Amino acid sequence: MRFQDIYGHEKVKNVLQTAVSTGQARHAYLFEGARGVGRLSTALAFAAALVCEQPEGAEPCGKCKSCMMSAAQTHPDIRVITNQLYDEGKKSVDVSVDTIRQMKREIYVKPYMAERKIYIVPRADTMTIAAQNSLLKVLEEPPLYCTIILIAENANAFLPTILSRVVTLRFQPLPFSLVEQALSETCAAHPEWEIPSETIPVKARMSGGSIGAAVELLQDKEADSLRDETLRQVNLLLQSGQRSIYDFAAFLKQNKTDIKFILNILQDWFHDVLLLKHDGRTKEIINADKTAELEQFCSRITRQSAAAFPDITAAYAGYINQNANYPTAVQCMAMEYWGEIHDRNYRNPL
């Protein structure tokens, strides 16, 4: 893995490449960003550059023994830390205090081949307070040869004492055009997937700027079915009868385990509704394959309702994240949607 193989994130790459070329890599970094946006790939490229025997500027040469081992993920001085690395019997993916303690023991052993040792910790924001306190002892007095890279979605999950001792690099969502390019190149490399080319732009826009999420969407046929059913249920709310309220709420109750994905689908749908209703713009819509349905939906609602739908969805996503009563929350959300469509004043009691 080389920096030039990473899509986007130019500012982050520049910081890391400067650290490599000047020989001034810091002892600890925090890579914060959405899952699948490129944090782990960037960490591996950075690690490969740090252990390379003959770096070409800030890039690993790709030819030396260290680079060959880095590419094969067998380099003894590059460690990707998971619970299963130290205990194959563990099923939890949340980083445990025992795992951090094991890592600490390794850190104080000098490098085997390279001048540096690199420890990459995916899902670092799942560490408990005890695990973070254990890690803190290393961050306070790190060995000169060690670099630790914490990978997380949410920096707020860390203790302030951890954050004050790491360099935080934020990975922003990638532009849809770049995600689409990455998907096109990935599909070309995997013709056995048999992905229709017209679905690539849709999946790119649904991904939220994450290549990893887009690839998962491409391969997940159940996700397509769930999206189609979610949008069918929303469009049934256009009917004047109130039965559609209860049918939509029942659908949400039956699919509680997928509610985060469903809420993302709804947010994308109402994003498109707002664009079409207010500006008539079709080039920027996410659900490009549902343009006819979007136009029909927009023809039945007011501009005020189009502006209200995203706020309603965001509000109920917040309630659900805060562990509000789930059946009540989805019932109220369905009622508010129907009320906006039919100019009735249903307001949530939550």
UniProtKB/TrEMBL annotation:
State any GO CC term: DNA polymerase III complex
The UniProt GO MF terms for this protein read: DNA binding; DNA-directed DNA polymerase activity
- Which processes are annotated in GO (biological process)? DNA-templated DNA replication
Name all DNA polymerase III delta subunit C-terminal domain ranges: 223-302
- A Pfam family cross-referenced in the UniProt record is DNApol3-delta_C
Which SUPFAM superfamilies does the record cross-reference, listed alphabetically? P-loop containing nucleoside triphosphate hydrolases
Highest taxon of the lineage: Bacteria
Q: Which Gene3D superfamilies match?
A: P-loop containing nucleotide triphosphate hydrolases
Q: What is its EC number?
A: 2.7.7.7
Catalyses which reaction(s): DNA(n) + a 2'-deoxyribonucleoside 5'-triphosphate = DNA(n+1) + diphosphate
Write out the entry's keywords from A to Z. DNA replication, DNA-directed DNA polymerase, Nucleotidyltransferase, Transferase
InterPro entries, A to Z? DNA_pol_III_delta_C (IPR015199), DNA_Rep/Repair_Clamp_Loader (IPR050238), P-loop_NTPase (IPR027417)
Per its record, how is this protein called by name? DNA polymerase III subunit delta'
Species: uncultured Bacillota bacterium
